Amino acid sequence: MAFFSKIREGFGVVKKPGAQDGIIAGKGPKDIPSYRVKSVEDLKCRFTGPGLGACGVHPSTEGESSCDVCCAAWGERHERADGVAISLYDEAKNGRVNPGDPIADVFGVMLYRNGSFLSVADGVNWGEKSRLAARCAVHGSLDYLEQNIRHATTTQEIIAHLLMSFDNAQKLIINKEATMTTLVTCCVCQVSDGRWAVCTVNVGDSLAYIYSPSTHCVKEITINSHQGERDVREAGGALGPSDGYRPDLGNLTCSFTFVEPEDILFATSDGVSDNFDPVVIKHATSSRVAQRQDLPFLSPEDRDEDSVRRMSCTLQEEMPSIGRVQSASDVAVSLLRHVVAQTEPKRRCLEEATSSPENEKAILSRSKLLPGKLDHATVAAVQVGMFPGNPTEEQKQKCETLAVELFNL
Fold it and tell me: Scanning 5, 40, 218, 280, which has its CA 20 to 30 A from the CA of 172?
C-alpha cells in the first residue's frame, strides 16, 4: 500500500508545517523536529475496550499479525492508563435493539516503564462492520508499535513508525473486509535530555489532548487536523476502503509537543469532543445569519478555544466518588460524566417519542432544539512519567468501581 510511503518519507506534504501553542504539526516526519529519544521498553500493562476491544480481531491467515493479543494479556487496568467507552443513544423499548448498537468506538492503552501508547478509533456509521474497522485500526496500530518502536532513535523516527502503524491498520481493515474508521495514535516518550514528549498521528475526528493537573488547563494536540470551518457531520478523513482499497487521508496530521511529568494525555472520539463544542450544545452559532439572535457567533478558532476551555472547567470540578481529577482514570470518568449529563435531555426526549407514537413528530422536532449530540463516546488516557510500579489491587478496584458505578459497565 504505497499511499503511506511518500508521506512517511516526508514528500507530498499538502500543507506547511505549523506551530501553535507549543504544537508542531505537518504531514510527515520531516515536518517534526528531530530529538534523540530513549528507547521505549518494558511493557507493564495494557487495557482495551469496550468489551473485547482490540481482542475482537483474530488473525485468519498466517503472517497477518504476530501479536499475541488475547483478552488475558489486555485485561490489566491501571489508574495511569485507562479508558472507557459508552453509548449516549436513547434506550429502545419493548426489548428492541438500542439505537447505535454495537458501540463502534475502540480504544487501547499500553503503559511501559518509560513511555506509553494510546489509540482511539471510531467506526464510521453504525453496525458490526464499523466496529470491526475500529477494532482492526487499534489492533493494527498498536501491534505494529509493540513490535517496532524499540528501533526508533529520534522523534522523527517515532512519527515514521506511527505512520507505518496506520499502514498496518489499513491492511488489516481491508483484509477483514471491514468498513471505515477514524484513528488517533499517540506515543509518549522521553528525549535524551530528560524531557517528555508526545508524538501523534491522527486521521478523521478522533482527537488528542493534554491536561495539566498543575495548571488545570487542557490543550489540543491535534488542533491542526481540523483548522477552518468545522462540520460535525464529516470526519475529515478515515482509514478503510474510501476509494477502492485506498483510505481517505484528507486531514492526516502528524503532531509533536513537549509535556511535563504527571501531565495526562487523553484521546476522544467525536462523541466526546463534539459535546464540548459550544455550537453543538446550543451556546453559540457558527452562522452570521443566525436562526437564534440570542446566540453569539463564534469563528472556528473561537469554537476550538471555547471547547478546550469547557474541558478545562470540567476537569477542575470535584466529582462524586473521585474528588479532584488526579489520574488518567479520573480524566476519562470526569469527561464522560459531563457528556452523559449534557445529552440527558435529548436522550429522554427521544425515549418519550418512542413511548408516545401519536406525538412522535412533535417530540422529534423538539429534540432538535435540545443541546448535545447522541453518539458513541470514548476517552482513553495515560499519565506522563516513569512507571511507578505494578497496580495494587486497590488501584484496580478503584478503576473498575468507578466505571461500574457511573456507567453501569
Answer: 40
Distance CA 317, CA 322 (A): 10
Distances (CA, A) of 350 to 231, 355, 363: 23, 9, 7
pLDDT means per 10 residues, the chain with 409 residues, are 53 44 93 96 92 80 44 76 94 75 96 96 95 97 95 96 97 97 98 97 97 94 83 82 92 97 97 96 83 82 95 86 83 95 92 71 80 96 88 64 58
Contact 339, 269 (CB under 8 A): no
| Other beta carbons within 10 Å of 20 | 15
- Residue 216: CB atoms within 10 A of its CB come to 13
C-alpha cell at 343: 445529552
C-alpha grid cell for residue 177? 473486509
Dihedral angle at the C-alpha atoms of 120, 88, 49, 332, nearest 10 degrees? 70
Q: How far is CA 334 from CA 56, 109, 340, 380, in A?
A: 27, 18, 10, 12
